[in-house]
Amino acid sequence: MIMKKLLSILVLSLLFSGNANADNPMKYGEFKKLIQSDYNIAKWYVRGLNSGNLFYSSFSTIYLPDNKRLFCQPQNLKITIKYSIKVIKDEAERLQKNTQEDIDDMSVPLLFILGMQEKYPCEN
């Protein structure tokens, strides 16, 4: 069960990556620099991340047994680009406080998924 969830996160991290080097998802350190240097490109990256998430949510609702999803946001929650960036930043800050990990080396899609799981856990 836990291994399936971890594998799903890994696969999604790779699928959600939208940077030019497709075999490596964008790292948080790169994302912070991108936000500072070209916020519009950063927004397009997050828009792609949101599109991938929407696709996965639709897929999991239809095809996964027992509707096992990575996170369960409220139906009325609209996941905007601004909100997604906040989720990513909040999760990076939370992990920085609670671990010795170098947060700048974590993938942005993984931070998004972990942040959404922290805010909206499923009861499955």
Strands, helices and their partners?
Blueprint lengths: L1 H15 L11 H10 L1 H25 L17 H18 L9 H12 L5
What does this molecule look like?
The protein is mainly alpha-helical and 124 residues long. The protein contains five helices and no strands. The radius of gyration is 14 Å and the shape is globular.
In short:
The chain has helices at 2-16, 28-37, 39-63, 81-98, 108-119.
Biggest sheet overview: none
The proportion of residues forming helix, as a percent range, comes to 55-70%
Rg computed from alpha carbons, rounded to a whole number of angstroms: 14 Å
Silhouette: globular
Count of individual beta strands: 0
Unreliable stretches? 16-20
Termini separation (Å)? 10 Å
Q: What is the residue-mean pLDDT, rounded to a whole number?
A: 80
Structural class: mainly alpha
The structural domain count equals 1
Work out the oligomeric state of the chains in this entry: single chain
The number of helical runs is: 5
Order of helices and strands: HHHHH
Strand content of the residues, in percent? Answer: under 5%
